[in-house]
Write a structure and sequence with these properties.
Helix content: 25-40%
Shape: elongated
Number of strands: 10
CATH superfamily of the largest domain: Chorismate lyase-like
Oligomer: single chain
Number of helices: 7
CATH class of the largest domain: Alpha Beta
CATH architecture of the largest domain: 3-Layer(aba) Sandwich
Distance between the termini: 43 Å
Radius of gyration: 23 Å
Length: 236
């Protein structure tokens, strides 16, 4: 219960109350909160006080306001710091989130000339193709496609449910030390939309990269990621 005679302003008390309710699971990520009018009535405060508490929580990232729909508990965002060499799983761990993967396809393919150039392979070379759907806290976040030279053909026998960086370290003694990235916006195809649980033509972040490492510091893999940008924070 809020205390009108306390030193702490009522809006701050309401904020703390809501933060505790979110932390304890009373309100879960994605849940809609009561309207500001309802919140004011429930806590015997003015609508102005309830609005200020909601606005402050939105500014802190605990909730998000959707015009014409209401206020919702914010879904935790996955963040990547591209100034550091981090794999998807490690970035999730540092964000306090749980990473997951589902193998979509793995096979030998002859990719386009740009991929082969990135991997420093001659024209017509076969490569290892691995496509995975990546999850954050059980929700689909990204479609990831990797191309490796045949040196890494052992990956076709791996489940790849966890960190690819870890598999490379454990099975090939290869550590990724550098990467080059190109970032742009694209639109989800019908197939991509179904995998990521978004609508067709939904804007996605397309990140193309080449990762380098190993004893010679050469290219290890070429990758493209299609990411749900609404749930993604990027640091560069």
């Amino acid at each position: 219960m809020l205390k009108s005679k306390a030193i702490t302003p009522l809006y701050e008390q309401l904020m703390e109350q809501l933060k505790k309710q979110i932390a304890s699971g009373v309100y879960k990520p994605g849940d809609q909160l009561p309207s500001e009018i309802e919140m004011a009535k429930q806590n015997n405060v003015s609508v102005i006080t309830a609005r200020k508490a909601m606005n402050e929580l939105a500014a802190l990232g605990f909730v998000e306001k959707k015009q014409g729909k209401g206020t919702f508990v914010a879904v935790p965002k996955y963040w990547r710091d591209y100034t550091q060499i981090l794999g998807f799983s490690e970035a999730c761990r540092l964000s306090g989130l749980k990473a997951g993967s589902r193998l979509l396809d793995h096979k030998l393919v002859v990719p386009n000339a740009k991929i082969l150039e990135s991997l420093e392979l001659p024209e017509g070379s076969q490569t290892v193709y691995i496509s995975r759907l990546r999850f954050v806290n059980g929700e689909p976040m990204a479609i990831e496609i990797n191309y490796f030279s045949l040196k890494y053909a052992f990956l076709l026998n791996e489940t790849l449910e966890d960190s690819l960086f870890q598999v490379l370290r454990d099975k090939a003694n290869v550590t990724i030390t550098k990467s080059k990235k190109q970032i742009e916006i694209c639109r989800a195809t019908a197939k991509e939309a179904k995998l990521l649980n978004v609508s067709r033509n939904y804007p996605l972040l397309l990140v193309r990269s080449t990762a380098y490492g190993g004893a010679d510091g050469g290219p290890v893999y070429a990758c493209s990621q299609l990411i749900n940008g609404e749930r993604f924070t990027l640091y560069v």
